[in-house]
Known about the structure:
With 486 residues, the chain is of the alpha/beta class. The protein has helices at 14-26, 39-48, 65-74, 90-99, 113-150, 171-175, 179-184, 187-190, 193-211, 262-304, 310-335, 344-358, 379-400, 444-455; strands at residues 3-10, 29-36, 53-57, 59-60, 63-64, 81-85, 103-106, 154-159, 164-167, 221-228, 234-245, 251-260, 341-343, 366-372, 376-378, 407-415, 420-427, 459-463, 466-467, 473-474, 478-485.
Amino acid sequence: xxxxxxxxxxxxxxxxxxxxxxxxxxxxxxxxxxxxxxxxxxxxxxxxxxxxxxxxxxxxxxxxxxxxxxxxxxxxxxxxxxxxxxxxxxxxxxxxxxxxxxxxxxxxxxxxxxxxxxxxxxxxxxxxxxxxxxxxxxxxxxxxxxxxxxxxxxxxxxxxxxxxxxxxxxxxxxxxxxxxxxxxxxxxxxxxxxxxxxxxxxxxxxxxxxxxxxxxxxxxxxxxxxxxxxxxxxxxxxxxxxxxxxxxxxxxxxxxxxxxxxxxxxxxxxxxxxxxxxxxxxxxxxxxxxxxxxxxxxxxxxxxxxxxxxxxxxxxxxxxxxxxxxxxxxxxxxxxxxxxxxxxxxxxxxxxxxxxxxxxxxxxxxxxxxxxxxxxxxxxxxxxxxxxxxxxxxxxxxxxxxxxxxxxxxxxxxxxxxxxxxxxxxxxxxxxxxxxxxxxxxxxxxxxxxxxxxxxxxxxxxxxxxxxxxxxxxxxxxxxxxxxxx
Length: 486
């Protein structure tokens, strides 16, 4: 394959220049050449166009190869320079090589010309590639130096003995130290004791994790640390740390970026304090509401002692139970760490225990089966749901098991994949009256259940057959199924 070659021939003999050109063409080069024999002509030719190689005679009447070499050096052009002479001694050749010539040949041995040119052209390309890489590296280093020296974050490096090896100038703004002062500090001098312990633990964990990830990129760790300033005040910082590795993947140091987050920490502390105050206030509200409802319940209970009419007394007891079910919600919220939601399964158990106690139910005669999933409900869902459970369980205990009839009351609670909650209250008692129109409920308790279901934006289904503890349908009893979105 023909290779294009631009050759500058420094030669006083036209015949010798043509001889060199013919030799290059015989070697497979499509050569373009120019012959010069004076310093001025050589300078003008170098300025005018680029050359791939310079072939120069050693001795000419008014010019020499060493002078030509000096001209090339002054031009700062990286072009291979080969001396060619009719007769050149060893000392002269050594002198020329020391001066910067890349090779020397004799005109009587031009068989070495093509191999010498091929070698020098390869070496020149390697030198140019290296210079391009060095230039790109210098440009990259300059870019990152500008970033490191102008960012407000502090960029730093440590060796594996945890001694600082680099600190960006922004440390003066962050800590009040000069760069030299900061680099001379130990970690003990830079950090508050608690933060030093956190940092040392993180370095150890990072190093241990790094050893298990041979060949993998080391993960970074973000730490919030309290650091000392030069004036002995402290600031809160956020530091992102990562290990540096040698070509074999072994950790050789740590690089980090640190920023001041004191204002953010203070704002977070203010928010936390404010939130805690609101939580305490909300707890107190729940406590007071619970106490007030219990007072109302107690007043109703006292008043009921003066009521002789059995039906009226029953109404008072039902009202008291409804109030207690609402008070129980506030009690649960007061006791809970989550002031917005309560554990509904626990709430159901508390309501039913109270009702069994109120109606003096023998649990050997009427068993209670509760199968509730772990569900957290907000107060606006829990109170209606609690009241519904209160009404339905009360109805079962009052009407479903006359004459010490044995049976069970079951409460099932679960959610589905559409995040809808289903509450099923059932019993195995005597069932609903045959003449009862379940589409047009008139009793207060069941009307309340219907209204509360509507308040929940749910659906109410009533069946005349009960469910066993295992959830299986069986003859007799009643089933109330309420479905709504959580």
